Amino acid sequence: MAEEEVWHPQEALQTDSAQRKLWLVKVPNFVAKRWKACCEQSAEQGQQQGRKLATLRLVQAPDESGATKTQYQLQLDAGVAAGIPQDFVMRNTTKFADPMLAFSDAGGQLAAEGKAWQKFDCEVARKAAPGAGAGAGRVALDPEYRKLSRQRHQAAAAKTRTVQYLQDTKLVGAPATVQIGQKRKEVTEKRDRMEAGELTAILFRLFEKQPRWNFAQLQKDTNQPTQHLKEVLGEIAVKNLRGPYKDLWELKKEYRAGGAEEQQQQQPPT
After folding, report:
1. Of 52, 85, 121, 263, which has the fewest beta carbons less than 10 angstroms from its beta carbon?
2. For 218-264, what is each residue's pLDDT tens digit?
3. CA dihedral defined by 37, 38, 41, 45, rounded to 10 degrees?
4. 224-236: string of b/e by CB count within 10 Å (b at 16+)?
5. Rg (CA), the chain
6. Could you tell me what percent of the chain has a pLDDT over 70?
7. Residues forming beta bridges with residue 76, ordered by sequence position
8. Is there a contact between 118 and 45 (Cβ–Cβ < 8 Å)?
9. Which CATH architecture describes the domain 126-155+195-265?
10. CA-CA distance, 18 to 113, in Å (whole number)?
């Protein structure tokens, strides 16, 4: 006689909170790692309630056109943000999000905790550069974020391959003759998409070195997919369509340095 399968009610999916509205907030990887470490430390110490991680604020901030808009900002606790950026702007990306549900698994009991009602992407906050007057448009990036971006760029640029020279070139089993002229398939390296905020910081550093770049040079230095680089680049820079700097990219007016430095950069090459 075949054994009958027994259904246990406690194993059923709990849906009491399935209709609860939740926020889905995407934070940078370095923030997620720091929060995870804090939670694990609280659990190891047996704390019933973990330490404070961040503060959420609703503020009125001017947009690109100068109009005032409501914006959420996330500020990490001072003890949590050591060595990483502390202030973040929450970009509402709800209209680009797919319908999602959140689940939990506590003690083997699977439950639906709610559906994603709002979606936000956290980006490092940018502030006006010191000494920049109203409407100057100069932006100062977070020093800790600049440091992290520089370390990532250096790590990505570090060479990991080594070359070993052989004393005896007569290899066992090697063919006596080699055919020349055979075509080899080209190996194309896949470029990994960088976060928009991190890529923007790298682009700002490149434009600090020289005011104008062609797209091929920027792609070589950032190693980013063409479409992704164009989208991020188009937010901070413009392409000259005519004149002595045709086809070269330069920062938009609101991001350029003012005064004599800008005038000197705008002089055509001799």
Report:
1. 263
2. 999 999 999 999 999 999 999 999 989 999 999 998 888 653 344 44
3. -170
4. beeebbeebbeeb
5. 27
6. 74
7. 54
8. no
9. Orthogonal Bundle (1.10)
10. 5
